[in-house]
Amino acid sequence: MMLLTIDTSTDSASLALVQDSKTLAEATWRCGQNHSVELLPRLSQLLNETETELKAIDCILVAKGPGSFNGLRVGLSTAKGLAFSLDIPIIGISSLELEACQHAESDLPIGPIFNARRGEIATALYQNKDNKWQQLTPEHITTIEALDSEIKGKTLFCGEYLPLIASQLKEKLKGKAVIAPDRPRRASLLAELAKGRLEAGDYDSPATLQPLYLRRPAITRRRHR
Q: Which terminus of the chain is more exposed, N or C, with fewer CB under 10 A?
């Protein structure tokens, strides 16, 4: 099965072509807020490198959030558009789970952290326990201060936003906060996370799959003349 995996959750983006659990090609890069102008050219480049045609893709896996409003909108709309036009299934996976999966070899609970703006963070807890990948707490919005009561034991924290808040985490959580090495999110790992759903044929509907924002994006009110 040929899979196209897409992640545009934050200022970093990643694409991969995965066939039968083997990554044929992958691109991970810093795109800032340029998802809309960089995603399709990067996809075209990936297809050319592997001499793969779009019609050869059997399923699309996409990181559905939480994350950047603009990034998720671009990634989801691209994934859904391709799924509709190619008449193939689609599966949405949590962006926080993808972030945590980069450190699945750890014995500790893993707390991926995204910047949720307004002094808040988006997080969840995952752990590879008894050789089984588990979600311990759901995705939610919180603050660094509130984490002290949420986190019960030593936890590995990860994410591209982490360097900016690592000192605060250590100050608030003391010995409970372990800072993970910096690793870019790789879209190819979506294939591993979706393995069970792929085997079960548990797909999402392109018509109803929506980004996981956790809260509505801020919208400026229109000024009356």
A: C
